[in-house]
Amino acid sequence: EPGRLMRAGLALIVLGHGSLVLGAIVHGSVLRHVAGARLAVTPEYAVANVVSVGSGLLSIAVGIVAILVSHNLSRAALHWTLLSVSLLNCLLSTACSLGLALAIALTVHSRGMHLVMGCNSSALPTDARAAIVTNDCPFNTTRIYDTALALWFPSMVLAAAEAVLSGRCSLVALIFRGIGPCARSYGKEQV
């Protein structure tokens, strides 16, 4: 139904903006400090953050195309555009949620030491959450650890929701083109 497709498009726009904002906050409050210490940020964190921002932008694009398709059901070019963009976003959002899960697992497993690798201080304890105030780090290691985890969890949930909604939009585009299991029933309803 066009109304359901339009709601999915609006939801993707909202989720995309949320992912974009969370990715920018992670970069501004966590990765900027960690990379600025000695440019020693691990690639997993940087890649997960870039993919999160890219997934947010692509989700916004899929939402806009889905809204356009819901108002122009007879346009074949819009159907193919929705199919290609939503499949790409489904794959990117899935990769984003897996990358963020990897970043969370690495951070929790190492007790935050991967995040504070750039801080070369002998006073730094083995647990980033138990950092003392007198270390030589230019940032607060406890705040970096807690902020990273607090922002990565909702970002991972948003990316997973984007993947699900993008997958639904791609199925709708296939149905509009007459491909798939529900295409025959949809065609009969339209006739």
TrEMBL record:
Keyword tRNA processing recorded: no
Q: Which GO terms describe its cellular component?
A: membrane
Major localisation: membrane
The question of whether Disulfide bond is a record keyword is answered with no
Record's Pfam families? Answer: BCLP (PF12304)
Q: Which InterPro entries match?
A: Beta-casein-like (IPR020977)
Annotated transmembrane regions: 47-69, 81-108
User: What topology in the membrane does the UniProt record assign?
Assistant: Multi-pass membrane protein
Q: Which domain of life is it from?
A: Eukaryota
**Keywords (A to Z) from UniProt:** Membrane, Transmembrane, Transmembrane helix
The record's subcellular locations are:
Membrane
Q: Which family does it belong to?
A: Belongs to the TMEM54 family.
Q: Which PANTHER family does this one have? A: KERATINOCYTE-ASSOCIATED PROTEIN 3
What protein does this entry describe? KCP3 protein
The organism of origin for this protein:
Herpetotheres cachinnans (Laughing falcon)
The gene that this protein is the product of is Krtcap3
